[in-house]
Description:
Helix content is 36%, strand content 30%. The chain is built from 9 helices and 18 strands.
Amino acid sequence: MPPTVNETWKPRRAQALLRRDRRLIASLFAVLTIAVVTIPLSFSAIDDVYSNPRSYRIRYIATFVNINSRMDRVQIYLPIPIDWPSQKNVHIERIEPTPESINEESTYGNKMAYFKVYSVPSGSSLNFTIQYTFTFYETHFTIDPTKVGSYDTKDPEYVKYTAHRPADGVESDDPLIFGAASEIVGSEKNPYLKAKLIYDWIVKNIRYEFPSPWGAKETYIKRSGDCGKYTALFCAMCIAQGIPARAVSGLFFPGPYPRTYSNKGHPTDPGAYGCHVYAEFYVPNYGWLPVDGSIGRSSGNPIFYFGQTNYPFLINSKGFGVSMVPPVGKVTFFQHYAWWFWGEATSYDSYYTYTVEETTVTRTLTVTTTKTSLVSSVSTLTTTMIAAGREILYAIGGALSAAVIIGVGYAIQRGRRVPRDQTSH
């Protein structure tokens, strides 16, 4: 019997349904790729750069001694660490005595506790304490020079970090520095490779000398300097070449722990002294890369410290010439306390001591209005929100994956089923 019109249409309808289901399966697999691969990879670049977290507690004490001076008024500033890409979960546990205010300077965003004391008697001393916990991350950048972008020279951040700062010992506009940097980089145009050439020259030609109370220009002339001068010279040469660069200042604390560090008695051992400075320079499409010329030279493996750090470090500030708030002056590196007094200077002393221990930081969200905890509350809130965002996105990826698996199973099952009224007779 010849097929009827209706029976001819039925096999064609089955074929159309199968084609539709195949398209559905392809679409669902595309969603699966986005959910399972793309979402986790959105964090993988950050996780690859910042890794191996370690948590610490630091108790830092600044001591001021009036041996035989007239101190009518004393102003003290302690740096307050904040979160950076390689430094997270900063939590201020205590500040003693209660500061007059906690402030943020407008140029770089560094924070500080401000104290004011009147009439400090001869033969007396003052202690100012800050204690905090934080998590340190190693930094490991892998750069493809062909993927380095171009600078937006009109961007305010570019302008800020390429500004000449001779008053801060970063004489990037000096003809000697400009000429030396030009000779070192030669015809190279890539900013990452330019910075690498400058770094290689510095670790090869500048010997370590501590202390060294001079700037970038004298470091180049003398061919010597401490960590701050390695940083100043690198930054000055980078800025002379149009590469944004800045200082990173803070506390260096090699183990084992617990351990105490101090500048009391002006030790010549940098490990015991504690303070350290290294540089960062900005690479389009990648961000701020760390560079540590002084440790790079002493390590015997300088290439490791170009774009990487692995030693425990507490960042107290970034930038050259950090202004105090309320205004009284500025310091080239805000590594530790800064202080000024009014009266008659005869004999006095000041020093810092800090103790480091390893710890496990518990992420908790606390809301408080006390002067000592406001900064840490905001930091903890930000960290908690980032962590929650990560978990939410992974949950979305998991849910989409489940939906895809169910959908694929349904589509395959539907594609295999042939309705009874579409079988041939």
